[in-house]
Amino acid sequence: MNGNFVYCNPTKLYFGEDSLDFLNEELPKYGKNVVLVYGAGSIKENGIYDKVINILKKNEKNIAEIAGVMPNPTLAKLYEGIKIARNHNADLLLAVGGGSVCDYSKAVSVSVNCTEDPWEKYFVRFDEPDCEIVPVGCVLTMVGTGSEMNAGSVITNEKTKQKIGHVFEDEKIMPRFSILNPRFTMTLPHYQMTAGIYDIFNHICEQYFSDTDDNTSDYISEGLMRSLIHSSKIANKDPQDYEARSNIMWTATWALNTLVACGKSTDWMVHMLGQAVGGYTNATHGMTLAAVSLPYYRHIMPYGLEKFKRFAVNVWGVDASEKEDREIAEEGLAAMESWMKELGLVMNLSELGVTEEMIEGIADVTIVFDTGYKKLDRTEIIDIFRESLI
Ligand code: NZQ
Ligand code: ZN
Q1: Which of 64, 111, 311, 385 has CA atoms 20 to 30 A from the CA of 53?
Q2: Which of 117, 96, 85 is nearest to 44 (CA)?
Q3: Of the ligands numbered here, which is closest to the C-alpha atom of 199?
Q4: Would the CB of 256 count as within 6 Å of ligand 1?
Q5: What does the alpha-carbon distance between residue 95 and residue 105 come to, in Å, rounded to a whole number?
Q6: Is the pLDDT assigned to residue 2 strictly greater than 90?
Q7: pLDDT tens, 114-152?
Q8: Stretch 198-223: mean pLDDT, rounded?
Q9: 72 within ligand 1 shell (Cβ under 6 A)
Q10: How far apart (Å, rounded) are the C-alpha atoms in residues 136 and 10?
């Protein structure tokens, strides 16, 4: 394990079918003024809204609401929420929803007491907050991002078509607590469930496909990937299977709560390509990743051959006997491809509304990292987007 690292994760998790009861234990720790943050209305349809409101009222909280946080939350929506939280003198932002609601709440949290423009400060300059942070709590209803236990926040500037994520350094920006009830995720449409599953898988890949040293994080990652593949096949056939859905929920949290990044330089280029697509098309996050992944991994495979070979054998069970390294690695990616198809993921960018004419523009807003096995140049980025088109 060659890398140096600091690990600190203060988010308290409550997991399981009875976990919402623990909101009663958390609420007394904060002041009276709670801002409830949620999306377009799924929580009203499935009854989670009523359950949360009842608990807030029982705890005598003054409630304000930020409703209508959209998937891929926008900067305009962020400005609106900052005003609501300021007017309400918020003591706690309670995010009830998926990664979008949770990310958005963190962005409001670091902006309420800040006089500067949050886009410039956090998503252009990547500054850390120098103002008082409003605590965030989360009741998770969509599984995938890991936002429930990390300090990441992704906001889309709809004017510039930039979708930018900031992973804050200060662990105080991680939710103070997160409530994870797998039953709350059962009403997710199949499309969102599988997009979330692929998001989880790719978070692990992004951290796994870097470096060549022997690292405990890689062994943990392989175990998480195997569990996810196993449970995803069950949930794909029977989305109401609690055991599978609960395993997927727990894997999502560990896939991106900073643990498996320990000692790793990490890659994150699938996310950079996917986010650039998301900024242009507003497509579902996990599906943007699914559409670009295979062309990207096949492109960088020769530069990280040993790790791709290990991935094939340890994650996909490829038989390595009497085969060339490259053949083994290719079989691993082929197994991954057939799993992705089995889940019904979006396998190309055309399905997400991307056209040949958009590719130069999408390449313009693609951020490039050089911590993976191959630093991409512009021609390679364009080639990967072209290969992902069909
Ligand atoms: O808005 P509502 O009506 O609630 O509907 C949502 C939304 O349409 C629906 N949904 C959520 N829970 C549901 C439900 N529908 C029925 N039943 C339920 N129980 O699902 C749709 C998608 O929700 P969203 O929150 O957008 O999904 P997700 O959790 O995938 O979050 C995506 C956002 O997170 C960012 C993405 O870029 C994207 O903006 N990410 C955040 C990360 C982080 N914080 O570390 C990392 C990720 O890589 C990702 O970039
Ligand atoms: Zn992701």
Answers
A1: 111
A2: 96
A3: 2
A4: yes
A5: 6
A6: no
A7: 999 999 999 999 999 999 999 999 999 999 999 999 999
A8: 98
A9: yes
A10: 12
